[in-house]
């Protein structure tokens, strides 16, 4: 079968679309995570492994695993970075721009090529091939090329809402086309418009000096979280009201 990244005919591995470390906060004592649907007809399900699909050969899988490992250590410790915890922002400095940006591109690209229903909202069109080429050539591009804004979601001023993963969807921000993910307690907004260079908040994209600004949002003030919670409540699957 053909590897989706290098386009060579090779044996394919069962590849994660979303890296495994994003699932760890979701697991219970039996190493299961709950799959919730806002539909009353769909029952609550449990899974013991993250969503995977035969996409990549061994060599390409190893390449993506190496950048995943780097980003994991950025978030959970293991690489030398500087972190400033401000009132409304977290500022991370000394990030390896190439590795972190390629990681971001890989999340967007894998979600776009996936045939799994969970990723049906991510349709990349001509961007799919451009992203593949950038990943294959290990070219992270400019900060504004497929730039990503991150917003950390907090239950209160200290507790990160990292026990929730939501189906990615398409939205527009300031007229720009975006795909929105909720991963690891953060909303990730991937911009796929051609004119991101003019985006007024582009200073929040990871820059080449390794600086990343992550905004902070309280869950009850985030429409994505409150809307999902209310839909679950209507379906009889949630007793929490984030609007309280």
Work out the number of β strands. Answer: 11
How many DSSP H or I helices? 4
**SS strand fraction:** 15-25%
Question: Rounded to an integer, what's the Rg over CA atoms?
Answer: 18 Å
- Strand arrangement, largest sheet? 5-6-11-7-10-9-8
Shape annotation: globular
Biggest sheet layout = 7 strands, mixed
- The number of distinct structural domains comes to 1
Q: Topology as H/E string?
A: EEEEHEEHHEEEEEH
Would you tell me the overall average pLDDT?
84
Distance between the termini: 52 Å
The structure class reads: alpha+beta
Enumerate the spans where pLDDT stays under 50 for 5 or more consecutive residues.
240-244
Helix % is 10-25%
Explain the layout of strands and helices.
Layout: E1 13-16, E2 33-35, E3 45-47, E4 52-56, H1 58-76, E5 82-85, E6 89-93, H2 97-113, H3 127-136, E7 148-154, E8 166-173, E9 176-183, E10 186-191, E11 212-218, H4 223-234
Parallel strand pairs: 7-11
Antiparallel strand pairs: 1-4, 2-3, 5-6, 6-11, 7-10, 8-9, 9-10
Helix pairs in contact: 1-2, 2-3
Describe the protein.
The protein has one domain. With 244 residues, it is of the alpha+beta class. The radius of gyration is 18 Å and the shape is globular. The model is unreliable at 240-244 (pLDDT under 50). The longest helix is centred in the first third of the chain and has 19 residues, at 58-76. It has helices at residues 58-76, 97-113, 127-136, 223-234, and strands at 13-16, 33-35, 45-47, 52-56, 82-85, 89-93, 148-154, 166-173, 176-183, 186-191, 212-218. The protein is built from four helices and eleven strands. It has a seven-stranded mixed beta sheet with strand order 5-6-11-7-10-9-8, with no helix packed on it. It is 24% helix and 25% strand.
């Amino acid at each position: 079968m053909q590897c989706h990244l290098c386009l060579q005919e090779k044996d394919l591995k069962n590849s994660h679309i979303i890296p495994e470390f994003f699932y760890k906060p979701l697991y219970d004592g039996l190493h299961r995570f709950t799959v919730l649907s806002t539909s009353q007809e769909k029952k609550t399900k449990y899974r013991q492994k993250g969503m995977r699909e035969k996409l990549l050969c061994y060599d390409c899988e190893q390449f993506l695993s190496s950048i995943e490992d780097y980003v994991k250590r950025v978030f959970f410790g293991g690489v030398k970075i500087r972190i400033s915890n401000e009132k409304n922002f977290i500022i991370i400095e000394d990030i390896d721009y190439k590795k972190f940006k390629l990681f971001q591109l890989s999340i967007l690209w894998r979600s776009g090529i996936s045939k799994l229903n969970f990723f049906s909202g991510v349709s990349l069109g001509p961007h799919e091939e451009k992203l593949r080429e950038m990943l294959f050539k290990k070219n992270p591009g400019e900060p504004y090329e497929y730039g990503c804004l991150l917003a950390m979601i907090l239950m209160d001023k200290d507790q990160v809402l990292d026990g929730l993963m939501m189906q990615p969807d398409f939205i527009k921000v300031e007229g720009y086309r975006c795909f929105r993910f909720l991963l690891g307690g953060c909303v990730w907004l991937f911009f796929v418009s051609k004119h991101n260079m003019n985006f007024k908040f582009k200073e929040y994209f990871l820059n080449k000096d390794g600086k990343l600004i992550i905004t902070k949002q309280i869950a009850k003030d985030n429409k994505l979280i409150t809307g999902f919670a209310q839909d679950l409540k209507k379906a009889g699957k949630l007793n929490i009201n984030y609007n309280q």
